[in-house]
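TASK: fixed-backbone design
INPUT:
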């Protein structure tokens, strides 16, 4: 499993750097090139997340039916096509078409698909592999931002997109094809099981809805902070250099949170680890509200560590609660509302960020984080059969 997880981790690092983190590198250059606002440029990225969310259930069913190797390999080609379209098509319409194609590739080739593939291959033993993948991919922005910024002056934003497309064909595609084993058809692995009784069905429905609500709320917070955190920190009275430095600490803290899950949390039930991770964000917000801007760095570290742990929990908690059978389908169903919320949240939150005091926005985020934690605390372990 380690070989597969490392291969997926490397491929995921490249895929995230070339898709999710790409607009941060080239959005300004694209807006200037097309003579449009940066808002319109980023709106195409939001549309890609919507496409990814809408496609996620079908992707989950495909992985459940035949394993993930073929689909992940195709995702590398689809992402390469989307990036090539960004680099070749003219105007804002071409930019938008490229991102719509990338949305399909992201649905097929980012975390949910990788987690579902590991769960389909290794069942309950996939937890270690999921953590390994996120440890590698946690460096996607750390690598993607400086590499993209360094290449941009030489290649231009179109050349950078074409170079990233080539990397997906020449590097990512072979990684998926040669490191991920073929999946066993579902019919060959599904054991005959008695139909679950009414109590088990009720538990599963309630647990799924509570988990979905938890991850939706947390994705909203992460999406809003991902776009507006530096502006919010500046609004607290911090200088731009300090605000950027504190925001950058979030990424390091995310990797730290994943290392904690990989080491100290390895022997603990994933639901308990997720509850600890969920608690860190409201604790960080409380410190910020009580101590003021001086607690901005502790808040950022708590927020980053929380995100790092919960990225793993997105894969491990459903696997631990619901089991390996049908896991890929479940991941697809849960990914759809999360990605849709992630796409809409930054735009919908912009008026609040621009009109409310920064502390009020942080306070609202803390309340949402508490509500999310409440949902997670209500999730009960699987009842004994």
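OUTPUT:
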């Amino acid at each position: 499993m380690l070989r597969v997880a490392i291969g997926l981790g490397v491929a995921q690092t490249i895929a995230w750097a070339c898709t999710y983190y790409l607009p941060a590198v080239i959005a300004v250059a694209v807006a200037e090139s097309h003579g449009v606002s940066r808002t319109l440029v980023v709106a195409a990225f939001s549309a890609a997340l919507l496409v990814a969310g809408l496609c996620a259930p079908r992707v989950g069913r495909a992985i459940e039916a035949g394993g993930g190797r073929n689909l992940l390999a195709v995702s590398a080609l689809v992402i390469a096509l989307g990036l090539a379209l960004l680099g070749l098509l003219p105007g804002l319409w071409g930019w938008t078409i490229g991102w719509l194609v990338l949305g399909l590739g992201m649905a097929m080739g980012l975390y949910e698909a990788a987690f579902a593939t590991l769960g389909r291959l290794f069942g309950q033993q996939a937890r270690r592999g999921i953590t390994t993948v996120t440890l590698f991919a946690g460096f996607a922005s750390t690598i993607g931002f400086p590499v993209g910024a360094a290449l941009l002056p030489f290649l231009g934003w179109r050349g950078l997109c074409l170079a990233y497309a080539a990397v997906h064909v020449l590097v990512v595609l072979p990684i998926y094809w040669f490191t991920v084993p073929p999946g066993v058809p579902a019919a060959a692995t599904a054991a005959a099981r008695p139909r679950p009784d009414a109590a088990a069905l009720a538990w599963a429905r309630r647990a799924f809805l509570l988990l979905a609500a938890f991850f939706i709320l947390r994705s909203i917070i992460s999406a809003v902070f991902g776009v507006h955190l530096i502006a919010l920190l500046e609004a607290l009275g911090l200088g731009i250099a300090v605000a950027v430095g504190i925001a950058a600490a979030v990424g390091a803290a995310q990797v730290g949170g994943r290392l904690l899950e990989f080491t100290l949390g390895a022997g603990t039930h994933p639901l308990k680890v997720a509850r600890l991770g969920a608690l860190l964000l409201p604790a960080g917000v409380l410190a910020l509200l009580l101590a003021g801007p001086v607690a901005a760095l502790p808040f950022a570290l708590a927020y980053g560590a929380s995100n790092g742990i919960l990225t793993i929990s997105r894969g491990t908690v459903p696997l631990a609660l619901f089991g390996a059978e049908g896991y890929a389908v479940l991941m697809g169903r849960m990914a759809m509302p999360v990605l849709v919320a992630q796409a809409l949240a930054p735009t919908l939150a912009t008026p609040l960020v621009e009109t409310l005091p920064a502390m009020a926005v942080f306070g609202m985020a803390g309340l949402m984080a508490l509500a999310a934690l409440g949902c997670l605390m209500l999730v009960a372990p699987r009842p004994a059969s």
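COMMENT: The mean pLDDT is 89.
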